[in-house]
Amino acid sequence: MSKTQKKFPLGIICLSALGLYFLSKKSIETFKIVNQYLFAKELNLYQRYKGGSALITGSTSGLGKEYAMQFAKRGFNIVQVARNDEKLENTKNEILEANSKIKVHNIQFDFDQPYTEEAYSGLKSELENLDDVSVLVNNVGAMSPGKFDSMDLIQANTMIQVNCIPQLFFTRTLLPKMIQRANSDKRCAILNLSSVATDTKAPSMGVYSATKVYNKNLSDVLDKEVNDKNIDVLCVQPGPTVSNMIKVLGPCIIYPKDHVSSVLSHLGQYRSTYGHYKHMVYISLIRYQWFKSYYQRNKKALTKLQGKP
Ligand SMILES: NC(=O)c1ccc[n+]([C@@H]2O[C@H](COP(=O)([O-])OP(=O)(O)OC[C@H]3O[C@@H](n4cnc5c(N)ncnc54)[C@H](OP(=O)(O)O)[C@@H]3O)[C@@H](O)[C@H]2O)c1
């Protein structure tokens, strides 16, 4: 056998092995995704976290309200934090209608202000007095689109405050007690609302998507810090979902109820989720650019979405 004949099969074998490796890797990834989004079964969350209270920020509309309703239906007491007393009271009544056996505690706070110890001291002592918080849903968020050449810097600053400070503040304030709870064999959970906007990077969404990258990174690092402490951290990256600000429906726009049910079926088993399978499909299409022609055809409907979270 000549020298070249010997080299040829070896090269082919190496290339085939490499191809096989990447193909298997992709197949395993795809299998895991299909399994997560189509076949994941919800754990018994009340049992897993041994009851306690679910604290939800921004609970008076949209996704936050649905998280409050669904945790209440599963038997958790609810602590809700939002800025409007009347809306808090109405939501409390709706939650109690869904499950009259639980307790609902309201905390009124407006996050549209810079963080200072003084401004947040009242909220901090309310949180420190809470008993048995087992689940924290860092949900509150705001969205004001704007291109760089014309954006309103005051609005952009408000959005940064509302989207970033509460997640940090609530986690920092409640985590020590949650770790204590988890140490006494009562597991806890922290859900952090980010967005598909981290990946879509659409025009006008620069500041919003940057705050959502902040939410995601904070969640990922928190997970690394507490994953040996009996605390489940889940980063949630929804796609377009009907809420206070989004009032259109489309093939990839879903209702909060469907979003939250899917997320709860991933809680305790995964570290990140887009929630509903439609949002997984949505982000995959955008990522691989297969969405381009659809995007062009439906520009009008999608433009409407650009004002939404
Ligand atoms: N909807 C979507 O398509 C979508 C997609 C991806 C990610 N998300 C994320 O999901 C989360 C919830 O969004 P959403 O669509 O459900 O929003 P939403 O319907 O506007 O609800 C936001 C909630 O936060 C409260 N809130 C807003 N600003 C506040 C402030 N300054 N102080 C205190 N409370 C305040 C609102 O209270 P009021 O009722 O008084 O306004 C409401 O309870 C956000 O983090 C958002 O980024 C949403």
Helix content: 55-70%
Question: What hetero molecules are bound to the protein chains?
Answer: NADP nicotinamide-adenine-dinucleotide phosphate
CA radius of gyration: 22 Å
CATH class: Alpha Beta
Number of separate helices: 12
Give the CATH superfamily: NAD(P)-binding Rossmann-like Domain
The averaged pLDDT comes out at 91
Order of helices and strands: HHEHEHEHEHEHHEHEHHH
Number of domains in the coordinates? 1
Uncertain segments of ≥5 residues (pLDDT<50)? none
Task: Identify the overall geometry.
Answer: globular
Strand order of the largest sheet: 3-2-1-4-5-6-7
Largest sheet: 7 strands, parallel
Descriptive notes:
There is one protein chain. The protein is an alpha/beta fold and 309 residues long. It has a single domain, classed as 3-Layer(aba) Sandwich (Rossmann fold), CATH 3.40.50. The protein has twelve helices and seven strands. A seven-stranded parallel beta sheet has the order 3-2-1-4-5-6-7, with helices on both faces. Helix 3 packs parallel to helix 4, helix 3 crosses helix 9 and helix 6 runs parallel beside helix 8. The longest helix is centred in the N-terminal third of the chain and has 37 residues. It starts with a helix and ends with a helix. The site of NADP nicotinamide-adenine-dinucleotide phosphate has 30 residues, from helix 3. NADP nicotinamide-adenine-dinucleotide phosphate binds next to helix 3. One of its GO terms (biological process) is fatty acid elongation. Keywords: Coiled coil, NADP, Oxidoreductase. GO terms for molecular function: oxidoreductase activity.
